[in-house]
User: What shape does this take?
Amino acid sequence: MKPVTSQRRGIQSLEIGIRLFQDVHRLGRPVTLSELARRSKMPASKVHRYCVSLIRTGLLHQDGRGLYSIGSYGFQLSHAEAEVDHARALALAALPDLVSETNETVFLSEWGEAGPRILRVVDPARPISIRPTTTGEIPVLLSATGRVFAAFMDVVRVTTLIDAEIIRLCHEQTLSAREARMRKQAFLRQLPDVRRRGIARTTGERYRGLVSFAVPIFDPRGRVILALTAFGLATTFPSAWDAAVPRALLRCASDLTRRIGGRKP
Assistant: This one.
């Protein structure tokens, strides 16, 4: 019999490639080729060849700026919390380009303890007259962001919040019980249309003269984990479903969903 060796021979190039993937995964953000080369102590040209193979297998992704991040298949191998962290980092990195393309204020949100909450707001390079507050949760009933989360989440999960908001509206606007029921029914009737279009819209329901669009970002299990929202004054912000801003939002959300290996439910 041949003696069993304590060290089994492996494929060194495979181990190097996996370590590069692990470096990007640990950083949790887009990384440059030079940073990967510095961390791995290899020439940039050699790191680049490994990255090409990792991109081809879906473990890594390279964006238009040449930065490397986790690819669609890499996300499917990740832990659920790591998926959200990476999705958040990618979405935050995409905000400036989206604002540059639309020339409108855009913000990223996630589901908090009592509804959607804003993670970051990016404004265009022009004077703006209104900006959302980044403290507290966004209302579900009267916001495009709330409608997007409600449309793609388990309705039971958001019903308590919806009922609480209805009660608050009853006190603020002195609504009758019948009017309150009608508000809730009207909101629930909108959700199938949001699911069909993949986008939600408000046209002054919360603030008169303000238009907003929101789109969902999905994880590999088809769950909505983030939302992108753009808004502006109705005088300069077209509210048509096929206008430039909602089209840009849909493209960006679709790209981010694809990059994390997500899927629409």
About this structure: The chain has a mean pLDDT of 84. The chain has two domains: 12-70, 79-259. Residues 139 and 152 are 16 Å apart (CA to CA).
